[in-house]
Design goal:
Layout lengths: L17 E4 L6 E5 L5 H17 L19 E6 L5 E8 L10 H4 L4 H14 L4 E9 L6 H19 L3 E7 L3 H5 L4 E2 L15 E7 L3 H4 L2 H13 L1 E2 L7
Parallel strand pairs: 5-6
Antiparallel strand pairs: 1-2, 1-9, 2-3, 3-4, 4-5, 6-8, 7-8
Helix pairs in contact: 4-7
């Protein structure tokens, strides 16, 4: 799996960083920054807030301040052919220092875990690392399961686009299997934290761009490779 930024001679919309069609759901995932499509950013934010409020975990949703001039964060939305957005998420990073990371604060209830998380991020910084945040899928979609698998797979696309070797996210234990199918691994030694409240046990999952495909399911690997062949995109300014 390559970790260098994608370069393509294929046609791409003026403001789209990267995009491809999901053959399972029939929907299209597109990557932007707020400065390229602020309208899509606000749609993503509205969907994220509604989703987190639905499950009464809005305190766990951290959204960066963004304006029409913001070149970060890179975010992704998934929409149908009519333009309705059904899913989204954003990438925090590539991280420049530990101060940019949210995860250590999410594990404060388990000091050992908070230390393990910080140590892992610190070690990953030289090779490039992104933090995956604010993922949501509209539960009313008939393609809910396919969209969740697409989101998991899309993290690999973000690593490719942003030219980083590593990615990570915090995730509730009951949902972790969804991310395992794209090659994620649970951080060794982690003790799940009570986050965002006592209803959840949250763990940390990591992706290594050099080995993720070895751990991914055959279906996720096949779809990812096909999407890489058909994706359009341009290099993100300032990416490694």
């Amino acid at each position: 799996m390559t970790t260098s930024p994608l370069k393509s001679t294929q046609r791409v919309t003026a403001r789209e960083l990267y995009g491809f069609r999901d053959e399972v759901s029939g929907m299209t995932m597109r990557f932007y920054t707020p400065s390229r499509r602020f309208d899509h950013w606000t749609t993503y934010v509205d969907g994220a807030r509604a989703s987190y409020q639905r499950y009464r975990v809005e305190q766990a949703l951290t959204l960066p301040a963004a304006t029409q001039a913001s070149d970060t964060p890179v975010f992704a939305i998934t929409s149908d052919d009519g333009g309705k957005v059904w899913a989204g998420w954003y990438a925090n990073g590539p991280l420049r220092s530990m101060r940019d990371a949210y995860a250590p604060r999410e594990f404060v209830s388990e000091p050992v875990s908070a230390s393990l998380v910080s140590d892992w991020i610190e070690a990953a910084l030289p090779d490039g690392v992104i933090e995956l945040k604010g993922a949501w899928v509209d539960p009313t979609s008939e393609h809910k399961s396919a969209l969740a698998d697409l989101t998991s797979r899309a993290f690999l696309h973000a690593m490719r686009l942003l030219g980083v070797r590593y990615a990570y996210c915090s995730a509730a234990e009951h949902a972790a299997s969804r991310w395992f199918n794209s090659g994620a691994e649970e951080l060794s030694g982690i003790i799940p934290a009570r986050y965002p409240d006592d209803r959840y046990r949250t763990t940390m999952l990591t992706w290594d761009g050099e080995t993720a495909m070895e751990h991914a399911t055959e279906e996720q690997r096949r779809l990812f490779e096909a999407e890489c062949r058909t994706a359009t995109g341009t290099e993100v300014p300032g990416a490694r």
